[in-house]
Amino acid sequence: MSADGPRLNAWERYGWLMPGVWLVFLAYTVFAVLGAGLAPALTALGLLLVVLFGAVYLAAFLVLQGPRDYRLGFRHWNWVGLAVLCAIIAAAAPLIGFAALFMSPYVVGYACYILPRKGGWIVGLGATAGTTALLALAGMLPEYLFLVFIMLGVFVLNTAEAALLDSESKRQAVSRDLAVVSERERVARDVHDGLGHTLTVVAMKAELAERIMDADPARARAELGELHGLIREALAEVRATVGGLRANDLPTQASALRLALEGAGIDVVIEGDPAGVRTELQATLGWILREAGTNVLRHARAQRCRLEFSPRRMAVEDDGVGLGSAPAGHGRRGMAERVDEAGASLRVSPGTGGGTRVEVAW
C-alpha cells in the first residue's frame, strides 16, 4: 500500500490472523492421517491435502477480505475457494474415512465470513445438516456428535461476529457520509457568510463609484481602491475554501492558509514544522487551522499572523482587533467540540501583541 493510498482498518490489515490461529485444530486431521496405517506415499498425500486445505482457507481470507492490495478482482473467487475446500475433504475421505470431516467446521467458518450473508447461512446450515445426515446414515453419529456441535457453535459465533463487523462497516460508512455532508454545509456557510457578503459590498461600491465618477473623482478613486482590497480578500477566501477541500493534512492546510493570508495582504510567519505533529491529530488540527485562519481573514483586520507548531501544541496568533466582548459563536464552539473529541484542549485568548491567539495543546 502506498503512502498516498487509503488507510486500512484493523480488520482489513490483521483480520486474516484470526482464522490463521484456528488452523491449529487441523492437527486432529494430521493425527488421523498418521494413525490410519497408510503406505508412505498415501500418508504423504494425506498430509499434503491437509496442508493444501489450510493454505487455501488462509489465502481466501487474505485475498478476499484482507488488505486491498492483495484482493482479487474476480467476483466469484469466494465460491471457487469453497469448492476447492470441499474437494479436498472429498479427496481425503478415501484415505482417512469419516475423520476427513474434522475439516468441515472450517467450511462453516469460511461460509460465514467469505460468502454473502444469505449464501453463508445456506452453506453453513447445509454443511452442518449434511454432515449430521451422513453420520446418521452411516451409524457414526454418536461417535462424531461432538463434531456436529462444533459446527453449530462455529456457525452461531461466526455469523454473529460477521454481522457485528458488517454493522461496524456500515456505521463507518454512515460516519464518512455525515462528515461529507458536514463539510458541504461548512463550505456553503463559508461562501454565503464570507464570500457572499464581500461580493455584495463589491457590487454596492462599484455602483457608487460609477455614480460619482464625474461629480467626485477623488472619492470615486478611493472607492475603487477599497474595491481592490475587497476583491483580494474574496480571492483569499476562495483559496482558503479550495485549499480546505483539497486536503486535511496539516502541512497542506498550513501552506493553503499562508497563500490565502498573503493574498489578502497579511504577513505570515510559520514557526516549527507542521509535519512533525502527531499523525492522528493532523486532520482535526487541519480543520482548526482552517477555521482560525478564516476568522483572521474575515474579522481580525490584521497585518500579521503567526502560525506555531510543536510536538505538543499548535497556535494561530494575529495582531488584529481582538475578540473584544463578542460571545463565542458557532465557529469557536465547533473548534472546541472537535478538539475535545480528539482528546486535546483549546484556548482562545488575547494575543501577546493585541489581536487573538487560538492555541491547541495535547
Task: Summarize this structure briefly.
This protein has 362 residues and is an alpha+beta fold. The chain has twelve helices and five strands.
What do these coordinates show?
- This protein is α+β, with helices and mostly antiparallel strands and 362 residues long.
- 67% of the residues lie in helices and 8% in strands.
- It folds into two domains: 10-174; 247-362, Histidine kinase-like ATPase, C-terminal domain (Heat Shock Protein 90, 2-Layer Sandwich).
- Helix 4 packs parallel to helix 6 (104-114) and helix 11 (282-300) packs antiparallel against helix 12 (330-341).
- The two termini are 30 Å apart.
Spatial separation of the terminal alpha carbons: 30 Å
Helix/strand structural class: alpha+beta
- Percent in strands: 5-15%
How many domains make up the coordinates? 2
The total strand number stands at 5
Query: What's the Cα radius of gyration?
Result: 33 Å
Shape: elongated
Report mean pLDDT, rounded to a whole number. 80
Low-pLDDT runs of 5+ residues are 1-9, 66-74
Count of individual helical segments: 12
The largest sheet is: 5 strands, mixed
Strand order of the largest sheet: 1-2-3-5-4
Helix percent band: 55-70%
User: Secondary-structure element order, as H and E?
Assistant: HHHHHHHHHHEHEEHEE
